[in-house]
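We examine the record.

___
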Amino acid sequence: MDRANGVQSGDELFMLFGAFLARLRDAAVGAMSRASQRLLQGVVAFSVLALLLWISAFLYGSFYFSYMPLAAYSTPVYYYYRSDCDSPNSFMCSYPVANVSLMKNNKPVLTFGQAYQMTLQLDMPESETNQELGMFMIRTTCFARDGAQVVMSARAARQLLPASSSRFSMLRYKSNLLRTLSTLLFFPMLMSGAAEQKQVLAVELFSDYTDDPYSPSATALIEILSSKVQIYSSHLYIHARFSGVRYFLFNFPLLSAVVGMSSNLIFLCVLVVFSYMRLLLGRPAQINTAGRLGNGGNHDTPT
């Protein structure tokens, strides 16, 4: 009798231990299943968030590069003299003239509706000829691709054309004593070529130039109305004068990028949430409709 009770007690302990192991196994399997499900949901959520972030950055970058024009443009200016003279004794029958292209990669540099400031920089030697030259005029005319004149600007000491603004250009005055002292002071640098006796003149050709959308500028004709002027080199600088949204985008690029990308991300997240909610709310209705159709097809027709 005692042996039977002992065997029965051992069987009960074995069954209890087996049930405990089964519950432990079920708990472990459930925990693993929940962990894998949470991990899968986290990976999906992270992937969706990364995709939305990339799309928002792409949308902001596309808007920035399509909306923002070229901020600055510079090109060297090479002058020449017209030699088609009637008199054989004269070689230079015109003032120094330069044709400057306002195209880059076969596309206009100037954007429609954007104001630009055009400045001509002249590197001129401090020679006696330039000192005696005094004031001289710089005339600039913009032409379209078909050769039509778009606008003209004349910069000089007095206004000569009705549609031109007046600006002068000349070397800064230096007395003979000042030039002598400057030469003696910079004598080693002048002899080694590290310095030159020259002045850099910046002449504003257009202060607020806006291109014509119906006849965009393709070239600019720059003419210095003096045959005795001496120039080392020359450059044309074009700077965009931003205002409004473009001013904010150009002067605060990091802040504008954060604001733009955040706005795009919020809009995309709201769109995804509404789409997901619509999908969840529309699924039970579809299931009920399918179930009703299936049940209706199984009804037997009474005889």
About this structure: The CA atoms of residues 102 and 218 lie 5 Å apart. The beta strands are 72-76, 97-101, 103-104, 107-108, 115-125, 138-144, 149-155, 198-210, 217-224, 233-240. The helical segments are 2-67, 128-133, 176-185, 187-192, 245-251, 253-298.
